[in-house]
Amino acid sequence: MEDLKRALLEQFGLVFADASLLETAFTHTSFANEHRLLKISHNERLEFLGDAVLQLIISEYLYKKYPKRPEGDLSKLRSMIVREESLAGFTRDCQFDRYVKLGRGEEKSGGRSRDTILGDLFEAFLGALLLDKGVETVKDFLYQVMIPKVEAGNFERVTDYKTKLQELLQVNGDVEILYQVISESGPAHAKNFEVAVRINGREAGQGQGRSKKLAEQEAAKNAFEKESHSCF
């Protein structure tokens, strides 16, 4: 945690008054479950809070930035900005992925690079920052980390990997592509879905996400990358 505190100070000028909030934000459920006797808190409640303040700040920004855009357009743009894949990208930009505490099994299975975990981590950090510093500090942080990329147009278009996979595979005729939910876990406000995509009955990729659609997109992305590579 000392390295994280130093990084927050150097990169963002942030010093947490309550260091326990910061520690909880960076503690995944898998780590807490492996250390039950220590009664360690995990970050799901902070994630819930961070999601709320993130939605509020981004909504206010879009409302003021695009005064002539209808509600439907603003909602679509907001969903692109706060989607799991985007938040995971911001986590990596901030190098927060270095500091998240994972259980041994989650670490071995590649959890440190999983969008689901990293997206949740970003929201949990915002929740901790809200409790420690207030909404204006959260807003300042987001305007430093997120808004420049929004204004650069990074979220105007999001790749639809399900369509890309279908187009790739069906060049030479019909192919059966099926998406199957393998598992469903987590509390009601933060469900996690794991989905497999099968091509003519063969499993071609897996993905995780906070909705079935997001999990399907990640599975399709993984399958698309494998299949496109094998085609060349």
Structural features, described:
The protein is mainly alpha-helical. The chain folds into 2 domains: 2-151, Ribonuclease III domain (Ribonuclease iii, N-terminal Endonuclease Domain, Chain A), CATH 1.10.1520.10; 161-230, Double Stranded RNA Binding Domain. The chain is built from 12 helices and 3 strands; from the N terminus they run αααααααααααβββα. Strands 1-2-3 form a 3-stranded antiparallel sheet, with helices on one face. Helix 4 (44-65) crosses helix 5 and helix 4 crosses helix 8 (115-133). The longest helix has 22 residues, at 44-65.
Question: Which regions contain 5 or more consecutive residues with pLDDT less than 50?
Answer: none
Nearest-integer average pLDDT: 90
Q: What's the alpha carbon Rg, rounded to whole Å? A: 19 Å
Into how many domains do the coordinates divide?
2
The percent range for strand residues is: 5-15%
Using the coordinates shown, work out and report the CATH topology of the largest domain.
Ribonuclease iii, N-terminal Endonuclease Domain, Chain A
The first-to-last residue Cα distance is 45 Å
Give the strand order, joined by hyphens, for the main sheet. Answer: 1-2-3
- The CATH C-level name of the largest domain is Mainly Alpha
Q: Major sheet: size, sense and barrel closure?
A: 3 strands, antiparallel
Structural class: mainly alpha
CA-based shape: globular
User: CATH superfamily assignment of the largest domain?
Assistant: Ribonuclease III domain
Q: Treating each run of at least 4 consecutive H or I residues as one helix, how many helices?
A: 12
What is the helix/strand order?
Answer: HHHHHHHHHHHEEEH
> Count the strands?
3
Instruction: Determine the fraction of residues in helical runs and give it as a percent range.
Output: 55-70%
CATH architecture of the largest domain: Orthogonal Bundle
Subcellular location: Cytoplasm
InterPro entries: dsRBD_dom (IPR014720), RNase_III (IPR011907), RNase_III_dom (IPR000999), RNase_III_sf (IPR036389)
Subunit structure: Homodimer.
Organism: Streptococcus panodentis
